[in-house]
Design brief:
mainly alpha
Length: 139
């Protein structure tokens, strides 16, 4: 497999996986924690409760855009501050995410994955590429 095809394959695999993870976390906030519960959690962190709703919307919309491959670089960079915030929120819980209330390594890794996605771009099967030429022509 050519290098540019491997890059396209890696980008689409990462893009869809990260997108599904965001949609899953939005669903968790909606169906399990509920939006009012998410509001209260954000307040318990000393943050405005409304930021919980903004986070839910960003996770849902951003995840769907990543899955579809629409403006992948921009979406990945726009979601990065939310994961930096999640890393901060879990920083006091220890390293492992299996710790009570979750550790910080998982959101930190997810943050790095978003930065890598922003560097890789859309990959294959994107509905609206974030650049004019596919990676196979950019290389």
């Amino acid at each position: 497999m050519q290098s540019s095809r491997r890059i396209d394959a890696a980008a689409v695999l990462l893009r869809t996986t990260v997108g599904v993870m965001f949609v899953a976390h939005a669903a968790l906030k909606y169906f399990v924690f509920t939006l009012p519960g998410t509001w209260k959690f954000f307040e318990s962190l000393g943050l405005p409760g409304a930021l919980g709703y903004v986070t839910f919307a960003a996770e849902l919309l951003g995840g769907l855009l990543l899955i579809a491959g629409i403006r992948t670089r921009i979406v990945a960079l726009a979601l990065t501050p939310f994961l930096i915030g999640a890393t901060w929120a879990h920083a006091g819980n220890g390293w492992l995410f299996t710790s009570p209330k979750g550790g910080w390594e998982y959101p930190a890794f997810w943050t790095v994955a978003l930065v890598v996605q922003a560097l890789l771009g859309d990959g294959a099967y994107a509905l609206r590429p974030s650049s004019a030429a596919p990676a196979t022509q950019r290389a």
